[in-house]
Amino acid sequence: MIKYNDIIKCPVITEKTSLLREKFGKYSLYVFVSANKYKIKLAIESLFNVKVSSINIVSIRYNVKRKHGRFSDIAGYEKRRKKVYFALANGQKLDIMSV
Hints:
two-stranded antiparallel sheet; alpha+beta; single chain; 99 residues; 4-stranded antiparallel sheet; 6 strands; 26% helix; 3 helices
């Protein structure tokens, strides 16, 4: 059984997410790759004491990274990630920097 603290990894803090938060009230987090909407909703509601109204999940597949050396090239991969966009119920706010 995975714990709620293990499901939520960290907040996504970019220009796009700050615009979404200001205009539409949508927040974003990186979550555990095998978590589903139900588990993510329970984790957010229990850890932050808020009511979630909607959840959208984006799976980000791994990227190939190449490093060019002097005599050979080295190829590697980034890890898969999952990003969650969620909206809170009316009148609720979440301080994303305190996560």
